[in-house]
UniProtKB/TrEMBL annotation, chain A:
<dbReference type="GO" id="GO:0016627">
    <property type="term" value="F:oxidoreductase activity, acting on the CH-CH group of donors"/>
</dbReference>
<dbReference type="InterPro" id="IPR052161">
    <property type="entry name" value="Mycobact_Acyl-CoA_DH"/>
</dbReference>
<dbReference type="InterPro" id="IPR006091">
    <property type="entry name" value="Acyl-CoA_Oxase/DH_mid-dom"/>
</dbReference>
<keyword id="KW-0560">Oxidoreductase</keyword>
<keyword id="KW-0274">FAD</keyword>
<keyword id="KW-0285">Flavoprotein</keyword>
<protein>
    <submittedName>
        <fullName>Alkylation response protein AidB-like acyl-CoA dehydrogenase</fullName>
    </submittedName>
</protein>
<dbReference type="InterPro" id="IPR036250">
    <property type="entry name" value="AcylCo_DH-like_C"/>
</dbReference>
<feature type="domain" description="Acyl-CoA dehydrogenase/oxidase C-terminal">
    <location>
        <begin position="213"/>
        <end position="353"/>
    </location>
</feature>
UniProtKB/TrEMBL annotation, chain B:
<dbReference type="GO" id="GO:0070991">
    <property type="term" value="F:medium-chain fatty acyl-CoA dehydrogenase activity"/>
</dbReference>
<dbReference type="Pfam" id="PF00441">
    <property type="entry name" value="Acyl-CoA_dh_1"/>
</dbReference>
<feature type="domain" description="Acyl-CoA dehydrogenase/oxidase C-terminal">
    <location>
        <begin position="212"/>
        <end position="344"/>
    </location>
</feature>
<dbReference type="Pfam" id="PF02771">
    <property type="entry name" value="Acyl-CoA_dh_N"/>
</dbReference>
<keyword id="KW-0285">Flavoprotein</keyword>
<comment type="similarity">
    <text>Belongs to the acyl-CoA dehydrogenase family.</text>
</comment>
<dbReference type="InterPro" id="IPR009075">
    <property type="entry name" value="AcylCo_DH/oxidase_C"/>
</dbReference>
<keyword id="KW-0274">FAD</keyword>
<dbReference type="InterPro" id="IPR037069">
    <property type="entry name" value="AcylCoA_DH/ox_N_sf"/>
</dbReference>
Length: 376, 348
């Protein structure tokens, strides 16, 4: 089957199946049976063994539908690929097929209250206990944890070495009685994320991913997949939709209003064309790498700008309008999640422009002697 | 839509870049360099159709070249001649197209949207032109001036021999030291009406193409400014560290890089629209000037500022980029006019 045929087949299948159920697990099972789950994953672990081209073709067709696969996005985008890269065969055998079939949901447990941008300074401890490990600590900003069966958990296993060298990655059973999931109400008033507490949670050693104290290397793999899946989702930025809405809501005869709407158009077109150029380069085999961080930073800025402009243009009504109030409340999310704007600028500066890094005080000092989180 | 350069375009870029390497904008207009660009590299005929002796390439290729001449701040009439070639492709004239393609003749334009105050009187099929053009780019170096003239039947493009009788060229002191301007006064100057007027639509399209061509030059100015300051941030030391390691500098450079990425995307898009999708050209052209013109000045400005005190000296090249960026930003009219045109096209 060539790519066009593949794409047509996907189109036909989606038209027949996309709207048949709202049940995420049931839909994933259908997707798996039809061969559209794990398109690029090896056949041995339940995937289809196809290429990025087929995956993109399917994604392009799926764009027109609101598929109920959100709760699987962390597992499919980050945890599964990490196990493919760094897991043992036994772990791949046990975990990957149920993930692809929609039988098990995954979440990712890296960030902590004291470790956000600087995630390697995390304090959740895993202590060896016979054949297994015992975990205590707290994680935060965890999507879909309330649905999750398994979590990819980054812990500290050695405090006597520098911070990047004392971390270990595990797969944790989210149904363990020591795991408490609490919804985190964010500034929009909704709960998009959770905080997770670990009290003497036991993990068998066979659920360790990678070597002891090599967790940072594994996490880098996961974060690479995270960035790829975010940048793949970075689309048009939504500016065009807002422009259409605002031109109805405000007096475009006012030259100041006109100019502000033109500015919104210019910014959204500039970013949308940049995104399209990046994806054309990717298709031509030129991988954007850290340049994707520029697209993410620009999207964060455009999101803030758009919500700010929309509320200002509409005026007093905007603070009692549900959609506008939600937009201005949600606007900071893109500038914080997946790396803050400041971190993005560091990445662009150091990995795109190759500028020298900041001097670091935390690279050679044993973790226990660092000022970090609640450890003073 | 194509936003990535093909193999041939990349080769063209490499050829022009290596030709321009080592030239300093401080040397001023060097006729022998200009002649080699047109002759050896065949650039004056790049977008002129093959039937007139040109290479028949598109705006995409011209944009690649202008990005490089912009990055080098090439002095002289290269851009003016390219704009004239654009005007001539829209209002074709065999004699002038052939002469420009061969590099025998340098033309410039008075890029005035909607006509000028010039008036013509017709005598024996020849136009006699009167009026004053306050600023014409590279009029001092060019042989022929192309100017829109308003007539009873609409707008026409007139070619005027700048060395002929009735033409007075007065050089002006310009902000941009790398590109000259002159006042041109015409008193019964002999002109030739090109094409078959009225040519309002053709000149409208030419105007849009000017916007794209200028944006390509601005992209080059931006790129070179950013490269210069990134290079300096890696060698200049303050308080015991390279200045590029400070977030106060690094973050500004990252923002400048973001502007460059978006500017390049817009220039590629606008050039593609010019070549492949004429319906999209007016909006793409207005977008190109509205975004790239401003972004270019901001990047050139911040590149100068981040150099610190040395950036304010006459000896350093930073001010040359800063001044070119400002001169380019206003070359096709006050920046608000591009935004206004965009608003009109969006039916706001």
């Amino acid at each position: 089957m060539n790519l066009d045929e593949y794409r047509s087949a996907a189109r036909v299948w989606l038209a027949a199946n996309a709207d048949r159920t709202d049940d995420a697990r049931e839909f994933m099972a259908r997707l798996y049976d039809a061969g559209y789950s794990g398109i690029t994953w090896p056949k041995r672990w339940g995937g289809q063994g196809l290429t990025q081209a087929e995956e993109r073709a399917f994604a392009a067709e799926a764009r027109d539908y609101a598929l109920p696969t959100y709760i699987f996005s962390i597992g499919l985008g980050m945890c599964g690929p990490t196990l493919l890269d760094r897991g043992t065969d036994a772990q791949r055998e046990r975990f990957l097929r149920p993930l692809l079939r929609g039988e098990e949901v995954w979440c990712q447990l890296f960030s902590e209250p004291g470790a956000g941008s600087d995630v390697a300074s995390l304090q959740t401890r895993a202590v060896r206990d016979g054949d297994g490990w015992v975990v205590n600590g707290q994680k935060v900003w965890t999507s879909v944890a309330q649905h999750a069966d398994w979590g990819l958990l980054l812990t500290r296993t050695d405090v006597d070495v520098p911070k990047h060298k004392g971390l270990t990655m595990f797969v944790v059973d989210m149904h363990h009685p020591g795991v408490t999931v609490r919804p985190l109400k964010d500034m929009t008033g909704r709960s998009h994320f959770n905080e997770i507490f670990f009290d003497d949670v036991t993990i068998p050693d066979k659920h360790r991913v990678g070597e002891v104290n090599d967790g940072w290397g594994v996490a880098v793999t996961t974060l690479l997949h995270e960035r790829l899946s975010i940048s793949a989702g970075v689309g048009m930025g939504g500016g065009a939709d807002w422009l259409a809405r605002l031109r109805e809501a405000v007096d475009t005869g006012d030259p100041l209003v006109r100019d502000q709407l033109v500015e919104l158009h210019i910014r959204s077109r500039a970013l949308s064309l940049f995104n399209q150029r990046l994806s054309q380069e990717t298709r031509a085999g030129l991988f954007p790498g850290a340049r994707g961080s520029a697209a993410k930073l620009l999207l964060a800025e455009l999101t803030l700008y758009t919500a700010d402009l929309a509320t200002s243009l509409v005026g007093p009504e905007s603070v009692v309008d549900e959609e506008l109030s939600h937009a201005i409340s949600l606007a900071p999310a893109m500038a914080l999640g997946g790396g803050t704007n400041e971190i993005m600028r560091n990445i662009i500066g150091e990995r795109v422009l190759n500028l020298p890094p900041e001097p670091r005080v935390d690279k050679t000092v044993p973790f226990k002697d660092l000022k970090v989180g609640t450890q003073q | 839509m194509k936003l990535v350069l093909g193999q041939d375009q990349q080769e063209l870029r490499a050829t022009v870049r290596s030709f321009l390497a080592g030239l300093s904008p401080r040397e001023g207009h060097r006729p022998e360099v200009y002649a080699r660009l047109n002759g050896e590299l065949g650039l004056s005929g790049l977008i002129i159709p093959e039937e007139y002796g040109g290479a028949g390439a598109g705006l995409t290729e011209l944009a690649v070249v202008l990005e490089e001449t912009g990055a080098a701040l090439l002095p002289g009439p290269f851009l003016a001649n390219a704009l004239a070639a654009i005007a001539l492709t829209q209002v074709p004239d065999k004699e002038l197209l052939t002469a420009v393609a061969e590099g025998r003749l340098t033309a410039t334009v008075a890029p005035l949207p909607g006509g000028s105050d010039l008036v013509t009187a017709s005598r024996d099929g020849e136009a006699l032109v009167d009026g004053r053009l306050a600023q014409v780019v590279n009029a001092g170096e060019a042989d022929v001036l192309l100017a829109p003239v308003t007539r009873h039947d609409g707008v026409a493009l007139v070619a005027i021999d700048l060395a002929g009788e009735g033409v007075t060229r007065t050089p002006l002191t310009t902000l941009d030291l790398t590109r000259s301007q002159a006042e041109v006064v015409l008193e019964g100057a002999r002109g030739r009406v090109l094409g078959s007027p009225p040519d309002g639509i053709a000149l409208e399209r030419a105007w849009n193409l000017f916007s794209v061509a200028l944006a390509a030059e601005q992209l080059g100015v931006m790129r070179a400014s950013l490269e210069a300051i990134v290079g300096y941030a890696k060698i200049r030391v303050a308080f015991g560290r390279y200045i590029g390691s400070y977030q106060g500098v690094k973050h500004k450079l990252a923002d400048m890089h973001c502007k460059l990425e978006q500017a390049e995307s817009i220039v590629r898009y606008a050039a593609w629209a010019a070549d492949e999708s004429p319906g999209e050209l007016p909006e793409a052209a207005a977008l190109a000037q509205a975004y790239v013109g401003r972004a270019c000045f901001e990047v050139a400005r911040d590149h100068l500022l981040l150099h610190g005190g040395i950036g304010f000296t006459w000896e350093h090249d930073a001010h040359l980029y800063y001044k070119r960026a400002k001169a380019d930003e206003v070359l096709l009219g006050p920046p608000r006019t591009h935004r206004e045109r965009l608003a009109d096209l969006l039916e706001l």
